[in-house]
Amino acid sequence: MTDSTQPSLDSPPPTPPHRRRPRYSGKNPRRFEEKYKERDPQRYAATVAKVLASGKTPAGTHRPIMVAEILGVLAPQPGAVAVDCTLGYGGHARELLARLQPGGRLLGLDADPVELPKTEARLREAGFGQETFTPVRSNFAGLPQALANAALAGADCILADLGVSSMQIDDPARGFSTKADGPLDMRMNPQRGQPASVFLAKLSVAELADILQANADEPRATELAAALAGRAFATTGGLVEAIRAALPRLNKDDTDLTVRRVFQALRIAVNDEFGALDTLLRHLAACLNPGGRVAILTFHSGEDRRVKKAFEAGLRDGAYAEISPEVIRPTAEERRDNPRSSPAKLRWARRAGK
Hints:
14 helices; seven-stranded mixed beta sheet; single chain; disordered N terminus
């Protein structure tokens, strides 16, 4: 006879009580961690559609920019080899992969160990197997090595989107955001290098002024460098407050622009983005098959100047047969629907030979 007050050995374990998700204040979520519906588009498609319709990017995602223009420039064909040097969320890669089939292949480079596995999973779920899509943990400076490791002599199409992905900007834990407080990190690969907090604390006034000028064309570089260089800021919010305090007479809109420029300059320096871009541009023509095409999206003048000069030099030297005669900008409709596309500039080049 079994004691009715004791659970049977064969009975299932008790169901844990349901725990409600913590409520956020107000009608709509504001913090990144509260936007769980935006970060799960498969379950909450209606919520994501509503966010997109408002001209915003759903949290934890990224909207690819100038897709039609890039496809028109690169003209991917079935059976071709393509490289997306900045895989990110995989939006551009997915469009390229669809046009490379049957028989084509794409290498997707990204230095971010947090986002790369997520994007690989999305593309695998979309039907692109290992024979079609190869993810590579590397920044775009590693393009020649990535091709060599894949036993490829060159590519028919190469894309580099130099913008920071929305997943990185929106997540305060990554340290890129000027709007939400988080650790002052800014590393594309959090497993390598030093965070922005350590980097900034080691800089002299002259060094920081040079970085602000070179990386962001900051008109108040000297004044800001004197206020920020050598100081220890643990969080993004602390740095934002210090920038605002250094410019007390500046109106809010101009101060906000200054904050974004300072963050841009530090991010570029922390990740040596210009060094990586210079390396890519130096090897780019040799990584293209004869007649192959490259498209590069830039988002500020320092990047665009480098790309323009490299393409012009390649045309003079005979490495390129043709380059974009002028910069291509997003349409007015895209700028309205996706404001983050507004500063984008697209340039392209075609390798000499057939």
